[in-house]
Amino acid sequence: HAMRMRIGLNSGPVVVGNMGSKHRFNYTMMGDVVNLAARCESGAKSFGVYTLVTEETVKLARAAGCGCVFRALDRIVVKGKTLPVEVYELVALSPEHLPEGATRCLEVFEMGRAHYLKQEWEEAIRCFQAAAVLEPLQPGRDAGVESTPSLLMRDRCERLSKSPPGAGWDGVYKMTAK
Q1: Quick one: which of 80, 74, 88 has its CA closest to 10?
Q2: Within 10 A of 170 (CB to CB), how many other CB atoms are there?
Q3: Residue 126 in contact with residue 98, Cβ under 8 Å?
Q4: Among 9, 123, 156, 162, which residue has the least CB neighbours within 10 Å?
Q5: φ, ψ for residue 172 (rounded to 5)?
Q6: How far is 174 from 161, CA to CA, in rounded Å?
Q7: Which residues sit opposite 76 in a β-bridge?
Q8: CB-hemisphere CA count at 13 Å for 27?
Q9: How far apart are the first and last CA of the chain?
Q10: pLDDT 10s digits, 57-111
Q11: What is the dihedral of CA 37, 93, 105, 171, to 10 degrees?
């Protein structure tokens, strides 16, 4: 059996502890870092992933010698913020734990992302479509899987090819939901 749940990971200073009054008391954490982690948790579903990680966490993990395999997904601005953040999928805890075919999927996805950032829509669509068939989890085959990063990016490129963002586009996607 495979249990899947969405997780958002972000790193930085937070306020943690018992907060409230004697009538309503709770152990919690607060701060922008926590809010971004929460947006990553909810945003993971829209990307078709289960663990969405910020660039800050990826940098710290790599600096600590972590062998996790991360896939760069997108640069996003979460609802309520103005600065973009690079987000990643945690694909595997080590290269040895990568599902079969995942390495090629990640390579083709990265090529698609490079075309996407250059507004080369047709090339990006071809890459994302090729990566979609290599995704370790597949909609219709794997229970609970509704989308994948490759399908999301392919669909986005199809929309953008019909209505290009223009020369000043920075590749940042603005999330509209929490």
Answers
A1: 88
A2: 8
A3: no
A4: 162
A5: -85, 135
A6: 17
A7: 85, 173
A8: 0
A9: 30
A10: 999 999 999 999 999 999 999 888 889 999 999 999 999 999 888 999 999 999 9
A11: 30
